[in-house]
Amino acid sequence: MQPFSSLPRAAKLLIVSLPVFALTAGQGSSGQLHIAVDNVRDRTGRVHVDLCTQAQYLKDCPISGEAPARLGQTIVTVSGLKPGRYAAEVYYDQNGNNKLDRAVFGVPKEGVGFLNDAKIKLAAPKWEEAVFDYDGQEKTIRLKLRYFIGPNAPAK
Known about the structure:
Blueprint: H1 9-24, E1 33-40, E2 46-52, E3 63-68, E4 72-78, E5 84-93, E6 112-114, E7 131-134, E8 139-144
Parallel strand pairs: 1-8
Antiparallel strand pairs: 1-4, 2-3, 2-5, 5-6, 5-7
């Protein structure tokens, strides 16, 4: 067997790093993101979350999660999320038909929300207003649903 000092540099690095890898192998990133959605107005239906990159924002986001609605706050967990920059868009599918119902002129009939409680004016907020950085570690973010029609809607 060769003495350690005569091994190539790459072999030395591998030998030295193995114990560190063994110690941290079970402690890696969980890839779990918890989204705490406040102002859920009922116990029916589901709360749906989409996480989008800038190119996917307000389009068909491939990363999503759902949870049964809980009055007040519902927590949706997305697992296996890779580190990156994401915007969070949420809707409360109160009637369980797997879509956001809209009234005249596209006004949402069900609760909607964006991360950072980004303002919804005549259109959805810009990506920069609803974005967050995710480092791959377990994390919780929060947002509040807004309603435009029905209970919890703003006073006229």
